[in-house]
Amino acid sequence: MIRRLDSVVASRIAAGEVVDKPSSVLRELLDNAIDSQATKVSVYIEEGGIKSIRVTDNGSGIPEEDLPLAFERHCTSKIATLDDLFALRTLGFRGEALSSIASCSILTIESSGCSLCCNNGILGEVRLGSVIEGTSVIMEDLFENIPARKQFLRRPTSEAADCKKVFLEKALGFENVELLLFIDGKLFIRLPKQSKLERVQDIFAQDRSFVKSSLVELTREADPIRLHLVFSTPDCYKRDRTQIKILVNNRIVDNYALATAITNAYSAALPGGAFPFFCLFIEDSPTLVDFNIHPSKRECKIRNQSTVYALLTSMIRDYLYNRSENTYKNLMEKQESFFDSVDLGEKETPQIQKPVYKPVYTQTTPTTPTAPAFRPDPKWFEAAKTVLSKKPEVEKPEKEKPHEERTWRYIGQVFNTFLVVETGEELLFIDQHAAHERILYDEIRELKDVQPLMLPYVFDTDRSTDDFLLENSYIYREFGVELVRNKSMQWEMISVPAVCRKNEEEIVKYITTATGDVESARKGLFAVIACHAAIKAGDVLDSITARALIEKVFNLDQMLCPHGRSFTFKITKEELYKAVGRIV
Ligand SMILES: Nc1ncnc2c1ncn2[C@@H]1O[C@H](COP(=O)(O)OP(=O)(O)O)[C@@H](O)[C@H]1O
Ligand SMILES: [Mg+2]
Predict the structure, then answer these.
(1) Fewer CB atoms inside 10 A, N or C side of the chain?
(2) Helix or strand or coil: residue 177?
(3) pLDDT tens-place string over residues 447-486
(4) C-beta of 32 in contact with ligand 1 (< 6 A)
């Protein structure tokens, strides 16, 4: 049944289901098909989804009388009250997607033997349609009536690639649903109903650097959380983080802290700059997860994040390094010291020294540029296992040194923007965004993590940018962005800082528009990089990330942001006491 939400519920749901490109339309249509309990969903995409996207499912269907409501804003069958919002089991709940899509395309829904079309916001009449099992939703001519938005669409091949990504990410969470993707009339991907492991394997197999039959599956529970991990063994890896996927209750999310936990726990088993194929499924009680904090729903707040972090790290390490003493229980008992050590990188226990862990990699003759260039020496794994399964000879007193050195205590985050730290006789407020910007700035300028691009990013410039780059391309190199001139007014970008591996397009967009003085080009480029990579004001930080950041802040010579402003504010104990008329 479709109900109209009451206005309180409606306003609590952040407005703006943004339809900005075909793949976001596809995401919504897939969500609806899956929410309808379908067991088979077919997707047909024409011209990158700009011309049309059709999603057909065999789910519950929509009753004839409800068809007009499906196009109306804030009409949903998925929640009725505010409480339902906190016990969400469906992917949709805002009741906004179809109305948003219908306002900027021609949207037709076929169900229950009827069909109803809404042409750029103008709703038609319910007509008799073909009889199908579930529902078929067809979106045509996206942004045809909104040229200002249409011009931002990219080439059909790029939009189709985004659609494919959305399709695969959605498929990860729903192995019980058979999914088919047709692009321009041809069957492109077929995923049968299968086990989770098979589903992950089929999806990773879409990536050319994936080596089949090298996946590990682990599950562990710590009520109310259940973690299910499917990941590659260290002989199969990628040069970027794009195949690290995190799903919370079957929704793909972006979670910086957990992605870092994965790369940190795994890093010793891989050569530098390599990342595993990794799928983390978190199942948590819907009451403890809040997806409503971000309209695009890729971010979500996990109330048990530190438990997940500890559990995840111990699962990976137990498996990779066979260290049974490092159980979840131990970790939780020693949570404080454990988290401190996570913050500080490799200091978890004294016996883990990088030289022991580091595999000996032998280089095989590279075949194609996309094939992984390194293979681990199998002997290493055996050797490492023996070394690591030994109990540490001397149980060193627990991490005394870092505690002695550390003269600060993390109190917490306020206004989702400031980290509060007690340092002896002072209370320090750190602006998390500016601090992280500064740290990123230093790290990027050190050029430690420059990522060569597998395929150079070729771009054309106008005459003035060409001239500017001829003289000044070195300023971008200082940030790890290496540019090479192909010919007059054509350049290629061959490397970027690893933190902006996925934002090449925006970097190029910036470079092709930035002319003028060198200093503002420098600042501008960094702003583009930081905009994507830096923690923002308003981001909720878990204590692990916060402490890692604070640690780095204390290692700075000067607590100034890249623009030279101070990002900290201090109040002394004396000032505080005075303020309330107390004698120190
Ligand atoms: N494929 C489908 N099968 C069954 N019902 C659907 C389908 N697509 C949409 N609906 C119905 O239309 C309503 C509105 O969809 P939508 O605008 O995406 O909002 P939401 O998914 O947030 O509820 C849904 O609540 C659902 O009842
Ligand atoms: Mg929906």
Answers:
(1) N
(2) coil
(3) 777 888 877 889 999 888 888 888 888 889 888 898 988 8
(4) yes
CA distance 423 to 438: 21
Distances (CA, A) of 245 to 13, 22, 173, 300, 525: 26, 22, 11, 14, 28
Whether 291 is in the pocket of ligand 1, judged by its Cβ within 6 Å, is: no
Q: What atom of ligand 1 comes closest to residue 91's alpha carbon?
A: 21
Question: Which region, left, alpha or beta, applies to residue 230 given φ > 0 means left and ψ of -120 to 50 means alpha?
Answer: beta
Domain spans in the chain, listed from the N-terminal domain onward: 3-191, 196-389, 407-584
77 lines ligand 1 (CB under 6 A): yes
- Pick the residue whose CA is nearest to atom 20 on ligand 1: 95
The response to whether residue 135 sits with its C-beta less than 6 Å from ligand 1 reads yes
CB 286 within 8 A of CB 280: no
Q: What is the DSSP string of 45-77?
A: EEGGGTSEEEEEE-SS---GGGHHHHTSTTEES
Just give the CATH number of 3-191: 3.30.565.10
38-42, 256-260, 382-386: least confident range = 382-386
For residue 154, report the distance from its CA to the centre of ligand 1, in Å. Answer: 28
Question: CA-to-CA distance for 476 and 511, rounded, in angstroms?
Answer: 9
Cβ–ligand 1 distance for 70 under 6 Å, the answer yes
The residue whose C-alpha atom lies closest to atom 9 belonging to ligand 1 is 32
Give CA separation, 478 vs 219, 484, 492, 525, 531, in Å. Answer: 44, 14, 16, 11, 18
Task: Outline where 534-583 has alpha helix (H).
Answer: 543-554, 573-579
Ligand 1 pocket member 115 (CB < 6 A): no
Is the C-beta atom of 94 inside 6 A of ligand 1?
Answer: yes
Domain 407-584: give its CATH architecture. Answer: 2-Layer Sandwich (3.30)
Atom of ligand 1 at shortest range from CA of 59: 3
Fold adopted by 196-389: Ribosomal Protein S5; domain 2 (3.30.230)
Q: Locate tokens 């229950």: which residue?
A: 112
| Residue 286 Cβ < 6 Å to ligand 1 | no
Q: Helical H runs in 79-136?
A: 97-102
- Looking at ligand 1, which residue's alpha carbon is closest to its atom 7? 32
Ligand 1, atom 18, lies closest to the CA of 97
* pTM, entire model: 0.58
Output the CA 92–ligand 1 centroid distance in Å.
Answer: 7
Give the pLDDT of residue 5.
62
* Cα angle 104, 106, 111; round to 5: 125
Q: What is the pLDDT of residues 325-376, one digit of tens each?
A: 433 333 333 333 333 333 323 333 333 222 233 333 322 333 333 333 333 4
